[in-house]
């Protein structure tokens, strides 16, 4: 049972770390572009992270902060 | 007591079953995240255009079918178009070193019922109702397909069909993210090639792009290669290079987001449709820049500036028409073009803006991937454009606008080959676009 708990926790952590990249990108964008305004990195399909990650306009305004949207397929060199 | 024992055992089994289910569920989630390294998205657009052209001074155009010059008479003409554009985008990151991007593209008129030329079943009248269902070809148009391989953390090798179409400032009036970081004044179409990119601290990047141009002997000249009208052999591949500098930083130059790119493009002795009618070669240098300021002084204003200086060296002639931007056998001309745009956000989802463009007589301009009937970015003269963009909640974008293009110069072949002719053309286009990205 203890082993099962450890394995489950490790798997859960692994799954969460897969989401970590998007969240870290969002937090970096907030820090660089929001001029000190704190915008929480809320999860879920309708959360702030995915709102920003999936935006296709030139910019998106989330909780008073306007951030640039990017098109990943637009750049040589990634 | 017996009842209590049974209940206890049932609870234990139930818990065991739940724990097993949870473990399986987490495991499935983990593997699903590993599998989903490929994302598919896209964009669909339905577009209405009302286009009018007024020719105030007649001019000559070269007819490649008859190999003779026709006259474009003075007068007015107008047409309305309805078109559909669709892109399917694929993004994949199979490893920490490799990323891939692809864009399949469709561009068509709405229910085209007349024949569009050719003899295949797909080109028959009413063909548009059967495309993709009648045995004809395996055509799928690939606008982009390129891979980035990170040699080191800062050095990336890229190859494929590069993201050089729909570049800046096309996204400015569409109110979309930049579709290509390589502005229209540096690359105006889809180019294949290889690139080496070096990114540096502080948002700087330098890129060297190699985009060779091919002249392939498709018919009987495989062993001998192609030759021009003098019988001189033509190189199958002619190298073209671009050196690009990019700078992208938030909270810089008085704006929320600042972006700058400068490009030097060079191609030498590019054969122009080598044949018994042509010994024309092009050597071209284009030096261009694009600067974009978003959220100027934390206001609702965005703006951009762009410009290009071109040196066009032409040797030989295409048929009887002449050379690149000249009627002479050998010539070198320089030209410039510049433009700017301003956009204001009335609300985060509603924007209005205007653009201006000027192109000098001998500027080398092209924008092959344009979807605008009156494309101001290829104007030898001046062009203006106003637009209104509205993002509706949930993913529908509507853009309406009006463009005026006042052309003062042209040439007989694709507006860039032959003697320069002074003209007075006024083109106007009013459009409405419905766009959804998914």
Tally the beta strands of chain A: 2
Low-pLDDT ranges of chain B? none
Overall residue-averaged pLDDT value of chain B = 90
Determine the oligomeric state from the structure: heterodimer
CATH architecture of chain B: Beta Barrel
**Overall SS class of chain A:** mainly alpha
**Helix-residue proportion of chain A:** 40-55%
Give the helix tally of chain B: 2
Largest interface: A-B, 32 and 54 residues
Rg result of chain B:
27 Å
Shape of chain B: globular
CATH superfamily of chain B: Porin
Q: Can you list the strand order of the major beta sheet of chain A?
A: 1-2
Helix content of chain B: under 10%
Key words describing this protein structure:
heterodimer; A: 78 residues; mainly alpha; two-stranded antiparallel ribbon; 2 helices; globular; B: 438 residues; mainly beta; Porin; 16-stranded antiparallel β-barrel; 20 strands; 52% strand
Question: What is the compact description of this entry?
Answer:
Chain A has 78 residues and is mainly α. Chain A is 49% helix and 10% strand.
What would you note in describing this structure?
- The complex is a heterodimer of chains A (78) and B (438).
- Chain A has 78 residues and is mainly alpha-helical.
- Chain A has helices at residues 2-33, 48-53; strands at 59-62, 65-68.
- Chain A has a two-stranded antiparallel sheet.
- Chain A is globular, with a radius of gyration of 16 Å.
- Chain B has a single domain, classed as Beta Barrel (Porin), CATH 2.40.160.10.
- Chain B is built from two helices and 20 strands.
- Chain B has helices at 2-35, 170-174; strands at residues 38-55, 59-63, 68-72, 75-92, 98-109, 141-150, 155-161, 192-200, 204-210, 213-214, 237-238, 240-252, 255-271, 281-296, 301-315, 330-347, 350-359, 381-392, 396-410, 421-437.
- Classes of the chains: A mainly alpha (78), B mainly beta (438).
- At the A-B interface, helix 1 and strand 1 of A face helix 1, strand 5, strand 6, strand 8 and strand 9 of B.
């Amino acid at each position: 049972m203890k082993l099962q708990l450890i394995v489950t926790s490790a798997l859960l952590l692994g799954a969460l770390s897969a989401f970590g990249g998007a969240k870290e990108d969002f937090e970096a964008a907030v820090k660089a572009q929001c001029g000190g305004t704190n915008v929480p990195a809320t999860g879920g399909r309708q959360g702030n992270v995915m709102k920003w990650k999936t935006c296709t306009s030139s910019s998106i305004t989330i909780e008073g902060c306007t951030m640039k949207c990017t098109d990943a397929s637009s750049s040589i060199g990634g | 007591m017996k009842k209590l024992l049974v209940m206890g055992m049932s609870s234990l089994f139930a818990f065991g079953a739940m724990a097993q289910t949870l473990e399986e569920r987490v495991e499935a989630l983990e593997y699903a995240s590993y599998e989903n390294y490929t994302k598919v998205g896209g964009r669909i657009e339905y577009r209405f255009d009302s286009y009018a052209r007024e020719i105030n001074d007649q001019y000559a155009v070269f007819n490649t079918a008859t190999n003779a010059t026709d006259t474009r008479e003075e007068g007015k003409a107008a047409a309305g178009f309805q078109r559909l554009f669709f892109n399917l985008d694929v993004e994949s990151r199979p490893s920490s070193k490799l990323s891939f991007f692809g864009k399949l593209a469709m561009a068509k008129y709405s229910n085209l019922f007349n024949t569009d030329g050719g003899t295949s079943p797909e080109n028959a009248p009413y063909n548009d109702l059967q495309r993709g269902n009648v045995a004809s070809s395996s055509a799928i148009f690939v606008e982009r397909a390129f891979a980035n391989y990170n040699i080191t953390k800062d050095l990336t090798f890229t190859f494929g069909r590069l993201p050089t179409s729909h570049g800046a400032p096309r996204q400015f009036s569409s109110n979309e993210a930049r579709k290509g970081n390589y502005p229209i004044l540096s690359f105006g179409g889809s180019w294949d090639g290889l690139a080496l990119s070096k990114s540096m601290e502080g948002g700087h990047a330098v890129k060297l792009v190699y985009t060779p141009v091919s002249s392939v002997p498709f018919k009987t000249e495989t062993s001998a290669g192609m030759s021009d009208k003098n019988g001189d052999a033509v190189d199958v591949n002619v190298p073209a290079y671009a050196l690009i500098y990019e700078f992208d930083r938030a909270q810089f130059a008085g704006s929320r987001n600042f972006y700058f790119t400068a490009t030097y493009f060079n191609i030498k002795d590019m054969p122009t449709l080598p044949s018994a009618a042509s010994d024309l070669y092009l050597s071209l240098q284009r030096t261009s820049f694009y600067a974009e300021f978003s959220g100027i002084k934390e206001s609702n204003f965005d703006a951009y500036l762009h410009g290009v200086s071109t040196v066009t060296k032409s040797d030989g002639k295409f048929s009887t028409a002449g050379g690149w931007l000249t009627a002479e056998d050998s010539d070198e001309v320089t030209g410039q073009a510049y433009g700017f745009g301003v956009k204001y956000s009335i609300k985060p989802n509603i924007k209005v803006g205007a653009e201006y463009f000027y192109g000098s007589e001998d500027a080398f301009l092209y924008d092959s991937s344009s979807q605008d009937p009156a494309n101001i970015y290829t104007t030898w003269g001046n062009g203006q454009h106003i637009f209104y963009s509205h993002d509706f909640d949930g993913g529908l974008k509507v853009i309406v606008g009006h463009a005026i293009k006042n052309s003062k110069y042209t040439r007989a072949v694709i507006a860039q080959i032959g003697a320069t002719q002074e003209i007075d053309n006024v083109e106007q286009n009013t459009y409405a676009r419905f766009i959804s990205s998914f």
